[in-house]
């Protein structure tokens, strides 16, 4: 079973964009390696999906053209073990190949520990329909995430070669164009399994999104069915709220909170100040 990060306070030894990590050996590219890191630092062959069933069923989506692309988009059961990622738990570490700036690189999640927040999102497949709208939307807003000291990482089960071809395709032709963040290859599906977003009988990931703080802890997660795209605005708002309460641990953010708006004290008496003002 895949374990969690070695330490939430470990200091990364290099940036994934350093010259030392920008090139990969051809053999590793052909294999499409992606691995979840075990507590001892080795690779875990058994995914988190090998345990008991989690009795959650995704409802079928009707009336969408995606049925022809995802013909088995019906109710299904996602497998999970007792340690599948939950909000408040440490994010499963991984090291995988990715495409960034027209090059093949390696990305290791734990390299961000102590440095940056991470938006980690999964999407089903390259060269599809909803996926490029999400991927380019995050890229177009990347500078805003950068100001919040946050990295964005996209993941699918496609190879780095597919990612590269998609990036090299013009947006008007359904491609991505240049992206501001890495697209990770999860050919082995180990990352998708570790984050419990893999649809077993289809071999692709649901639209899972995880907000991971600088300590490597999952603070927010959402999972959409295949035909439903995600909101960059809501992801940004959630990230800003998370950072606010971490900077102000004696306060909480009410529904729809945005920077500059009134927060509240989690206290029966002190919270009345907020309710009296709204």
UniProtKB/TrEMBL annotation:
Name of the top EC class for this enzyme: oxidoreductase
EC number: 1.11.1.24
Reaction(s) catalysed by this chain's protein: a hydroperoxide + [thioredoxin]-dithiol = an alcohol + [thioredoxin]-disulfide + H2O
Parts of the chain that traverse the membrane: none
Cell inner membrane among keywords: no
InterPro entries: AhpC/TSA, Peroxiredoxin, Peroxiredoxin_C, Thioredoxin-like_sf, Thioredoxin_domain
Xref: CDD domains: PRX_Typ2cys (cd03015)
Gene Ontology MF, one: thioredoxin peroxidase activity
GO biological process: one example: response to oxidative stress
Keywords, sorted A to Z: Antioxidant, Disulfide bond, Oxidoreductase
Record family assignment: Belongs to the peroxiredoxin family. AhpC/Prx1 subfamily.
Protein name according to UniProt: thioredoxin-dependent peroxiredoxin
Classification of source organism: Eukaryota, Viridiplantae, Streptophyta, Embryophyta, Tracheophyta
